[in-house]
C-alpha cells in the first residue's frame, strides 16, 4: 500500500500553545507513526517547552487521542448528518447522496496525512461504524420508499463507496503517475471524478433491460 511520508507542517506561531501542539503532533505522527514520534520533536516544532504536552494532554498518548478525535469529528460527523433521515423523493436522494460524496472526499483531502496514518496504524473509530451504518440505513430506507432497487446489497455498495473515496487519497501519487490526474491537487478532475462515480453508483453501466 502506498504510504508516502508527508511534509512536516510547522504551526502558525500566532496560535495558542495548545493548538500549536495539535498541529505539530498531527504532522509528526503522520510522518513517523505513534511509536516513532517523540515528545521532544513535537514540542520543538510547536515552539513550546517539553512539558507542555503533559500540561495540556497528560501524555503523548493523550495528545494522540485528541488528534484522532478531532480527525474523526471532521471527517465523519458532517457527512453523517447529510444522510440522516430517509430521502423524501428521487431528487432529494440524489442531491443528498451527491453532497455526501463531496463532503466526505473534501474532508479526506483536508485531513489526508492523518487519514494515511489511521489506515497504516489500523485505527478504528466508533463514529466510523456509525457512518457506515447510517449510509446502509439511508439506502435501505430508500428501498422501502421505492427509490432504490430492492435487490441492491446496501452493505456491499457502502463498502465500494468508501473504498473508492479512500483509495483516491491512499494511492494519490500512483494515480497521478499512471493517469496524470489527482483529486487532491486538480479541482477540475475532482469534479469530473465525483460526477462519474455518482453516475455509476446511481445508474450503473448497462442500459435498462
Sum up the structure in keywords.
Arc Repressor Mutant, subunit A, 2 domains, mainly alpha, 209 residues, Tetracycline Repressor, domain 2, 10 helices, 71% helix
CATH architecture annotation name of the largest domain: Orthogonal Bundle
**What is the CATH topology descriptor of the largest domain?**
Tetracycline Repressor, domain 2
- Poorly predicted ranges: none
Count up the helices. Answer: 10
In total, the number of strands is 0
CATH classification class of the largest domain: Mainly Alpha
Tell me about the biggest sheet?
none
| Average of pLDDT | 91
**Which structural category do the helix and sheet elements fall into?**
mainly alpha
Residues in helices, as a percent range: over 70%
Order of helices and strands: HHHHHHHHHH
The general outline is elongated
The gyration radius over C-alpha positions equals 20 Å
- Counting structural domains, the number is 2
Distance between the termini: 39 Å
Beta fraction of the residues? under 5%
Please describe what this structure looks like.
- With 209 residues, this protein is an all-alpha fold.
- It has two domains: 8-58, Homeodomain-like (Arc Repressor Mutant, subunit A), CATH 1.10.10.60; 70-203, Tetracycline Repressor, domain 2, CATH 1.10.357.
- It contains ten helices and no strands.
- The chain has helices at 17-36, 39-46, 52-57, 60-82, 90-110, 112-120, 126-144, 154-170, 172-179, 187-203.
- Helix 4 runs parallel beside helix 7 (126-144), helix 5 crosses helix 10 and helix 7 (126-144) packs across helix 8 (154-170).
